[in-house]
């Protein structure tokens, strides 16, 4: 029984080929195709409004030099958002529950922000490792602590996204299993459990959106430190 709970996090394969790449590309098919008109229908209007809102929120912490990252950050936000939400559908696979995928997204982007700071303003970027006014005996220890906190940032990004989504999926499966098992024995308790399952599903929808936003927002904050 315990193994079956974690089977949902195993990447499905077809003829030995992992289908995780197809599941990552599928959300792009849900976006309306571009047209030569600015606004074609209500769906396009809603899509443009959503993209504008997301881009505005992500660009607030950044100055003008960071606005060139708008397309990359907005695209990443839309990708994570749609993958997280589609993963809540029954009999689907959520790629963002895989730590390997989240680290593959977090590490290169974090490294890009770090290299940007080292190239444009190396003294300020290295100055973050040692706060101003630090007593001399504490300098070696503080440099090691700040370096560790800097290097652990991509791991924190990947683990945060993986842990939150994995915990939510496990809770949904556990409560849905309990609902099905209690239905022939105690129908009243089963209905109560089904209500809890519905509320938990609504909560997971919110968590899926919040985690996608937090992932990209932290990247934008790391970028702001280095530009």
From TrEMBL:
<comment type="subunit">
    <text>Component of the ATP synthase complex composed at least of ATP5F1A/subunit alpha, ATP5F1B/subunit beta, ATP5MC1/subunit c (homooctomer), MT-ATP6/subunit a, MT-ATP8/subunit 8, ATP5ME/subunit e, ATP5MF/subunit f, ATP5MG/subunit g, ATP5MK/subunit k, ATP5MJ/subunit j, ATP5F1C/subunit gamma, ATP5F1D/subunit delta, ATP5F1E/subunit epsilon, ATP5PF/subunit F6, ATP5PB/subunit b, ATP5PD/subunit d, ATP5PO/subunit OSCP.</text>
</comment>
<comment type="similarity">
    <text>Belongs to the ATPase A chain family.</text>
</comment>
<feature type="transmembrane region" description="Helical">
    <location>
        <begin position="12"/>
        <end position="31"/>
    </location>
</feature>
<dbReference type="GO" id="GO:0046933">
    <property type="term" value="F:proton-transporting ATP synthase activity, rotational mechanism"/>
</dbReference>
<keyword id="KW-0813">Transport</keyword>
<dbReference type="GO" id="GO:0045259">
    <property type="term" value="C:proton-transporting ATP synthase complex"/>
</dbReference>
<keyword id="KW-0375">Hydrogen ion transport</keyword>
<keyword id="KW-0472">Membrane</keyword>
<keyword id="KW-0138">CF(0)</keyword>
<feature type="transmembrane region" description="Helical">
    <location>
        <begin position="171"/>
        <end position="199"/>
    </location>
</feature>
<feature type="transmembrane region" description="Helical">
    <location>
        <begin position="205"/>
        <end position="223"/>
    </location>
</feature>
<keyword id="KW-0496">Mitochondrion</keyword>
<dbReference type="GO" id="GO:0005743">
    <property type="term" value="C:mitochondrial inner membrane"/>
</dbReference>
<dbReference type="InterPro" id="IPR000568">
    <property type="entry name" value="ATP_synth_F0_asu"/>
</dbReference>
<keyword id="KW-0812">Transmembrane</keyword>
<keyword id="KW-0406">Ion transport</keyword>
<dbReference type="Pfam" id="PF00119">
    <property type="entry name" value="ATP-synt_A"/>
</dbReference>
<feature type="transmembrane region" description="Helical">
    <location>
        <begin position="101"/>
        <end position="118"/>
    </location>
</feature>
<keyword id="KW-1133">Transmembrane helix</keyword>
<dbReference type="InterPro" id="IPR035908">
    <property type="entry name" value="F0_ATP_A_sf"/>
</dbReference>
<feature type="transmembrane region" description="Helical">
    <location>
        <begin position="69"/>
        <end position="89"/>
    </location>
</feature>
<dbReference type="InterPro" id="IPR045083">
    <property type="entry name" value="ATP_synth_F0_asu_bact/mt"/>
</dbReference>
<protein>
    <recommendedName>
        <fullName>ATP synthase subunit a</fullName>
    </recommendedName>
</protein>
<keyword id="KW-0999">Mitochondrion inner membrane</keyword>
<keyword id="KW-0066">ATP synthesis</keyword>
<dbReference type="InterPro" id="IPR023011">
    <property type="entry name" value="ATP_synth_F0_asu_AS"/>
</dbReference>
